[in-house]
Amino acid sequence: MEVVRHLLSVAMVSQWLLLILFVAAAVDAVFPIVPSEGMVVTAGMAAAAGHQNLLLVIVVAMVGSVIGESACYFLGRGSGPALRRWMRRREARQAMYEKVSKALHTRGGLVLMTVRYIPGARMVATLTAGATAYSFRKFIVFTIAGVTIAYTYVALLGYIGGDAFAHDSLKALAFSLGLAFLIGTVLETSRRIAGRRKAAKVTAG
């Protein structure tokens, strides 16, 4: 455990952390297997300890995410029919595709700004935006706005809570990953409750 703590302490001080953060944010947009939000929280804690620049942490994460989401958009744009076939292989994925497709062309800005808070939905939304030829100009504007809000928020969470873990980077990492998981769980639960209430109103009406 002491070795892990030492390695984490070195990583938080190193400027390589920004490069890792950039890559994680870009990859997370295409393959949602990398906890980029947790890494941003950790980098925010490093900034609180004076090891990183908070503004630079936010900008690096934003740029990485915008590049990743743009790549995902063009993947969708270049493989519309193939994407639709891939979506149909799973009922849940197909349902999300149809829901996101409809939402994009009715309230696209809101969808692109908030979908990143729903685990796995951001990739579907960006692929769908490309596959349905949603305006790239609108896409990039709303994407930049969305990542600015999201990463500023999580970086500030790490920065504000940084003092509590300033001398224990292992606890800082555990806290950041747990916080990212908690945020995703709360938002997903809220979305499901709202969906059930809406469905209940429709049924009652």
From TrEMBL:
Domain VTT, chain residue ranges per copy: 34-159
Keyword Transmembrane: yes
Topology relative to the membrane: Multi-pass membrane protein
Keyword Electron transport on entry: no
Stored InterPro entries: DedA_domain, VTT_dom
Keyword set, alphabetical order: Cell membrane, Membrane, Transmembrane, Transmembrane helix
Spans traversing the lipid bilayer: 7-34, 54-76, 139-160, 172-189
Annotated compartments: Cell membrane
GO cellular component, one term: plasma membrane
Subcellular location, principal: membrane
Family statement: Belongs to the DedA family.
Protein name as annotated: DedA family protein
Species name: Kribbella qitaiheensis
